[in-house]
Amino acid sequence: MITSRAPRTAPRSTSSGFNLVEILIASVILLISLVGAVEISGRSGMLGFLAGQRYEREAAIDEDLAIIQRMNDRFTCVSGICRVLPDDEGDMDKNDYFPNPIGTDADGDGVADAQESAVENVQNRCRHTGGLDLVTPLKTLLDALPQPAGLRRTITVDQPTGAHRYTVTYTDTATNEVMRQMSLVPTAVAWCPRV
Question: Which of 11, 40, 157, 173 has minimal Cβ neighbours within 10 Å of its Cβ?
Fold first, then answer.
């Protein structure tokens, strides 16, 4: 009797493992994941840095504008010389913005003789008479302030000149991005006589 034998096969191992192709594919997937994670981490760090810089510039703008607004409120030309009254001179009142016209009035024009030139000066600045105004001298004082770090502050007197208004613009020096603009009117303008 002739018996046929089945072909011999390699014995199967009971432990399942990975072959070389599977290991290579897993390695490539792991490498791609790591590269993606590193890139995301790098971008996240850069975005955090840029956001921090922006917050610092915004804080510098807030601080600078607080100084400008304080100067805007304490600016006066009542003595004939335009200046910003120091904080240590106390709160300002109407006589700090417009000369007190009450007093001896020998010529009968309704203004104290000692205050006539001061009243005329303020009125000329309010009306833009003789090249005088209330904004240009304030702009000169504001331009003398140090520039905030990383920013360029520009101050322009708005037109028409009768507006008594100026605009402060903050530009990021690194990107030339306009970060903020604010238009202001000196508090002294509120004391201009209505003509």
Answer: 11
Q: Which two tokens stand for residue 148?
A: 């905030």
Contacts for 165 with CB less than 8 Å, ≥ 6 apart: 135, 157, 158, 183, 184, 185
pLDDT tens-digit series, residues 47-60: 777 777 888 999 99
Which of the 8 DSSP states describes residue 134? S
With 0-12 CB in 10 A as exposed, 13-18 as middle and 19+ as buried, what is 81?
exposed
**27-83 residue pLDDT tens:** 888 888 888 888 887 777 777 777 778 889 999 999 999 999 999 999 998 877 889
Distance CA 129, CA 68 (A): 26
